[in-house]
Every structure is written in C-alpha cells, then in structure tokens.
What we know:
This protein is an alpha+beta fold. The protein contains 6 helices and 31 strands. Strand 12 (154-158) and strand 13 (164-166) form a beta hairpin. It is globular.
Amino acid sequence: MNLLQVVLVTCLLSACFGEDGGGRVWKTVPRRPYLKSDLESTPLEIQTDSRLGDTVYIQVYPVVGEYSIQISNILDSSPIVLLIAPGFPGTLIQNYFNLTGPIHEWKISKDNKYSKFKISCDGIEKIYDFPSSDQDTWKRQVDEIKFMPFDTATSRYKDSNWTWQDLAQVRLPNRLSLYPIEFKTNDASSARQYTHITLYTADFKAETKVDIQWDNDDYQFWIDQCNRCDGGQSYAQTRFTNVPNDIEQTWKLELSPSQLDIHCNGVKVYSYVYNNPQYSNSACIGCTAQMNMQFEYFEFNEANDKAAVEYLTPPQCTGLPESWAGVKMEPELPLPYNSRVSVSCADGYNKTSGDSEVVCLGEENFGFNSQPICRKDCSDDKKDDDKDDNKDHDKDDDKDHDKDDDKDKDDDDDDKQDHGKDGGGSKMLYLGIGLGAGFVVGSLIGLVLYLVKAKCSSSAGRSNAGASYVVKNEKARVYEVA
Length: 482
C-alpha cells in the first residue's frame, strides 16, 4: 500500500467526510423552521407518525400575542384537541377522531368570520368554536407557525410551495451511560451565548436540563434541580476558569454514577459531583436520583440554545456479542444507532427463546427484553452417527463372514497347523495385540462422539447468565432496554 492509499484510507475513516470512526458522524444541530401561514388562505398541512410520538404541538404567532394548538394521545384511537392561550385555561375539545394505523394526514385552518377552527384528519373534518376566553387573540391574523420541541408526532409538513418536507427530529438518540454527548460551538462574537441541553428517558416522561452560558470568557454552569448539590454553590457561583480560549470549541459531557464531567477541546474544565456523601440534603438526594436515570435522548433547546452548531452521532452497531452464537440479523451489520432489527438464527441453529427484534445501541451493544438464544441443530450430527452405525454394522457382517471362511479353512488345514505350532503361536500373539488396540481406539472414538453430542445439546448457543442488564459508565457488551 503506497502513501496515497494510506492517506485515502485514513481519510475515509476520519474527518474527511465528517466521520469520527465507528460510523460516528458530525451533523448539523437540527432546528425547526418557522412557517409563513395565516391558517386561512394557507392552512397548515402535516403528516403524523404515532411510532415517533403521541403529540402534535404547534405554536401560532399572530401579529400580536401567541397561542398553541395541541393534538395529543395520537397513539390512542381517540386523540383529543387542546387550544391554549397564555393567561387563560386550556380549552379541551371533546370531539374525538377515531384513528387506526400509525400514519395520518391533517389539515388545520380557521375562519375568523365565523369564529371557527377547522381540523380534518384523513379527509374527515371537525369544526370547533373559538374558545370563549380572549376572543381577540383567536381572531388576530396569523403571521407564523412553529413546531415546538414537545411535538413528537409530526413527521412531515407542506411548505409554502405545497411540497412535503421532513420535519427535523430534535430529540436525538444517545444512551448517555454508553456514549458522552459531544458538540461544537463557534463563538465569533462577544455577546452572551447559551448551550441548553435537555436529557430525556426513553419514554420522555422524565427529563433534566444542563445549561452552559458565557459572556466573553466568563463561563457559568447549571443542572436542573442540582444547583446547590455541589458544595452548596448557586448558579451564579458555578464557573469554569480553564476553558481554552478558542473560537471553535468542541465540548463533551460525560456522565458517571457520581458526577458529570465537562470537557472543552480536550481539557476537563469542570467535574460536577452530585453523588457526594458530604452533601446529604434533600436537594442532593433528588439530584442524585435524577442524574442516575437512564437517559436515552437529548435535545438542544431551541428557545435558549443559540451556540451549538454540530453534534457527534453515536456509533453504529458493527458486531455481535460473543454470547450470541448463531444469531443472524436482518438487515445485516453494520446498523445505524437506535435502529430496530429482526433477529433469527443462522443455518444449522434453532431459535429457542428471546426477542425476535432488538435495538442497536452502538458497537456490540443491543437493547432487548429477553436475549435471543440460538442453539446448534444436532440433527445433522445424528445423521452422521447413523451413517457411522451402519458402516460399523456392515463391518461386523463382513467380519462374521470372514470368520466362517477362516473356520472352514482351518478344518481343512489341521495337519498343516500341527506342523507349524511354533509359528502359529507367534501369529496368535500378534492377533491378540491387534484386537486389544482396536478395542481401545474404538472406545476412544465412542467417548469423543459422546462428548460432541453432549456439547451440542447443552452448550452450543448458550447465553451468558445475567447478560441483559443496565450499567452506568461501563462498556458492557449487552444492555437491556430500560
């Protein structure tokens, strides 16, 4: 391999195409667009996928003020509509849609003349009166619409050219106990900058927030509900003093069961200890319980995060755990992180237990409820044993036949044998030694076949006891879905 080939291979495995090895890729931080729509002449058309989430959350911005339209419980067959204006209680719409299947198309519009909202799903329209509270807000002309981070169900929308566009998914998969969150900022100004990251559990029902903000070289740090757990320091007192003075900065947030380490351009700038016995107040106990949750997703909060420009994706799945002998995946490796993959058994193996679908968690890690187990199929070995038995039987028949012939020959040659007793005695000795050796070899072969059968029936495809578990800050091979 010449120098040019070495450079090309190195380039392919690293930063030439935005990769960091193992399928890790630097991607632009996803942001959701503001859409120009008045909801009258230009209704909002969206597509939802309940496999992504169960809530549509749209923020509507009239010329003055704002309000939100929510469609929740999309995972159920009867979602509900909720209209909310700031300072007024939400108005719950009791007209339900009866939905089946995950994919649905919606159209949302309003009619100021008759004070009505119109919401249709898959061509079935329902009409709702404007809420009686704050009529002026609902009647104002709409200027822009924004899909909020809480919107987990919307997958596509129609732009101003009435073309379907994919909606950016801002909640990014990453198991924090396996892989740190890594992102880049580019601070070319002296204005105050924010990086605001929200961490989520798998069901999005529990979350915590990590906030880094700076003004010039004055860096401050804060964790939701933990701001007085690290020696009693308040938000304004928690500062970094050794941050590299570079315009482009690469940050890494690394979580362990006791602390959160923050790195910038390879320098550890802060270690936030939230599981320190020295701080046993109630705030610290709650902080520890919160930070020890299994975080599966993170999000750059669009309202506050203005500094993050890129983030590093988790690695692909590139191999199988050692205990998964005979397991076959469809599609085949390598697999994107967080992708679901079907599990079966390779030729010569039978599936005895475990999930038929697992989730890729990067490298050789997979999420499952019950570990897939494939045991070696011993039927082929049995066929080979039967063939060997038949061969042995044929050999025995041939031996018996040869013995009869030898007996007849011995009767005819008695006189000759009497004259050669001394030579015959030596021959009998050799024959006895040969038969004894054959018995020993045959016994050894039988023992080997027995051991092979025992191994095939008991150990092939055996799963590691306790292989499915969840640990913190440790690269275990197999992890259970939280």
